[in-house]
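Q: My labmate handed me this sequence with no annotations at all. I'd like to see what the chain might look like in three dimensions before we decide whether it's worth expressing. Could you predict it?
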Amino acid sequence: ERSPLDGTKENFALGQSTLNANGAFDFEIPDNMEPGMYKLKIGAQVAELLLDGTEQNVIIDADLKTLGNYNYVVKGSPNTEFFLQAVSDYKNRNLNSNQLMELTKNDAPLLAAMQLGIKIFRMRTESLPLHESILKKVNSSDLVGKKVATEYGMQVSMLRSKKVRAEAQMKVKIGQKAPEISLPGLNGEVQNLSDLKGKVVLIDFWASWCKPCRAANPKVVEIYNKYKDQGFTVFSVSLDGLDTRTKQRLGNDESRIKSLMDRSKEQWKAAIEQDKLTWDHHVSDLKKWESIAASTYGVKNIPQTFLIDREGNLVSHNPKFDLENQVKKVL
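A: Here is what I predict for the chain of 331 residues:
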């Protein structure tokens, strides 16, 4: 059964075969079929195959009980083999998200690259640089004019439009001066974003309780250590602490509020140490989502980052998967 890469529309059956007593089968692939993602359905289980039409003999080895979630082996289809190996390495933590992105961008055959982009990195605005990089290769390949290339190009175009609309709604827009942030650090002394003028700064909104933030920290640490001597630094704004609703739930009991506030501050400090966030600029008003800085920057979810240049102008919003390239460009 052929599907577009996202597997959501226009399914149609190519044919069928019957399992023998040993669970084996064979199936003749039609000539001149379109490149794309094909589904092999056995009962309720599904195996995905990325076929470009040049394959001669595709061998699938799987246990029907564990066929789902890419637990099968394929030979004779380079795109599928690459995709399955990359997914396996990512699931088993042999690759982190940034390593997988570089692999997808630089080494993956095109069908595998598109499928990894859609399945792993999704059609999210922060993934747009990756998708545009893949699409550039697609547009200079023999996939041009094929349905799979057209479908993917349309998805990337819609994602591009989505990012434009999102940036138009941002409180702080690309090219504008980044608003001042003046908040106390761990020692209670106020730190100002403006004091970092002359440096390239990543403003990073995060919290110790935010699992995606903690997962993103190693990459930020890596970039900081690599470029700190060239004028790059990080200004971390924590959304730890207590908001008004929590205080009300505690009956506005000052002793309980103080106890929880102290614990939250300790968790913030511990997270900085555990994640090796060795830069000097860690601030918070300990008001959680009521943080004045979050309000100023329109932050409603975290992690969220803003990259500003040496003059204090915003140059990039959420440079997640291309952070290093963005930093290098501004430096």
